[in-house]
Amino acid sequence: MDGIRAMDGMRVPIFELEGAGCRFGGTEALAGVQLRIGPGERVALVGQSGAGKSTLLGLLNGSIAPTAGRVRILGQDLRRLGRSRRRRVQRQVGMIYQQLHLTENLRVIHNVNGGRLGHWPLWKAIASLVWPLEVAAAARALERVGIAEKLYERTDRLSGGQQQRVAIARVLVQDPAVILADEPISSLDPTRSRAVMDLLRDLSLETGKTLVASLHDVDFARSHFERLIGLRRGRVVFDRAAAAVDDACLAALYGEDSEAESERAND
Questions:
Q1: Which of 58, 87, 113, 218 is an S-S bond match for 64, by CB 3.0 to 4.6 Å?
Q2: 98: domain range?
Q3: Using CB atoms within 10 A of its CB, is residue 204 exposed (0-12), middle (13-18) or buried (19+)?
Q4: Rounded (5°) CA angle 117-120-123
Q5: Order of all β-strands in the sheet with 42-46
Q6: What is the total count of domains within the chain?
Q7: Where are the beta strands (DSSP E) in the chain?
Q8: What is the Cα–Cα distance from 138 to 142, expressed in whole angstroms?
């Protein structure tokens, strides 16, 4: 059964991890992760730096292979697929990177069209750098993120919040089944952070796309996502509905490390 058709019929989860682990040399980044994420869910990954959030996102987008256990994306184990089928599955997973990965000396339309590169042959991608293609689709994506007037602006002339919106528009033209976001508001001020989080939540609600984001801000995680997964030292501490994440959960996730840091600071 094709994994994407199965997903459309909601017969399989978008992601399914069974005892998944990831080790880099002598460092265990993740261990024993049991996880299912279904179509249309909004899931936040929370925990301190180094907890394994970015590694988990790498497993979910297929850029990192597990060294233990199994990871299925849209019902498929990428390790068992040939190159073309693996790429087809990965095109269904859009990624917003913490560093955005925009080419700042290019115009906005070129960066937005970067979301189509996996669908275009090489000649079309090269031609679009000379004369932009599929302009209407790029314009619609920018309109949805609120910066339609920036279509032909140089990307390096935009504010940080506007560049974040370009990265989101790039994912929209990719039209994946799921959007992953790695610390999407880490470099933004509170006002712009709320605007971006509102945008991601609303896009997920409007399109039905699954949204998984790693966040340091637990308040945004609880207000904008329906489910929180707490990671600590590479292990899942809790996996609960946002409304059920209480002070005890957060103490288990952050408490001891915070106390240890305070003790070290007082030594």
A1: 58
A2: 40-64+89-266
A3: buried
A4: 105
A5: 93-96, 178-182, 210-215, 42-46, 227-232, 235-241
A6: 1
A7: 15-24, 27-37, 42-46, 68-73, 93-96, 178-182, 210-215, 227-232, 235-241
A8: 6
Single-letter amino acid code for the residue at 232: R
Whether 161 is covered by a domain: the verdict is: yes
Classify the phi-psi angles of 258: left when phi > 0, otherwise alpha if psi is within -120 to 50, otherwise beta: alpha
Q: What is the CATH number of the domain that holds 214?
A: 3.40.50.300
* pLDDT higher at 1 or 212: 212
For residue 133, which phi and psi values (nearest 5 degrees)? -110, 165
Alpha carbons 11 and 178: distance in angstroms, whole number: 16
In a domain, 183, yes or no: yes
- Strand 178-182 to strand 42-46: parallel, antiparallel, or no bridges (unpaired)? unpaired
Q: What digits encode the pLDDT tens for the residues 22-39?
A: 999 889 999 999 999 999
d(CA 106, CA 125): 14
Task: In whole angstroms, give the CA distance from residue 233 to residue 17.
Answer: 18
Task: Give the mean pLDDT of 47-68.
Answer: 94
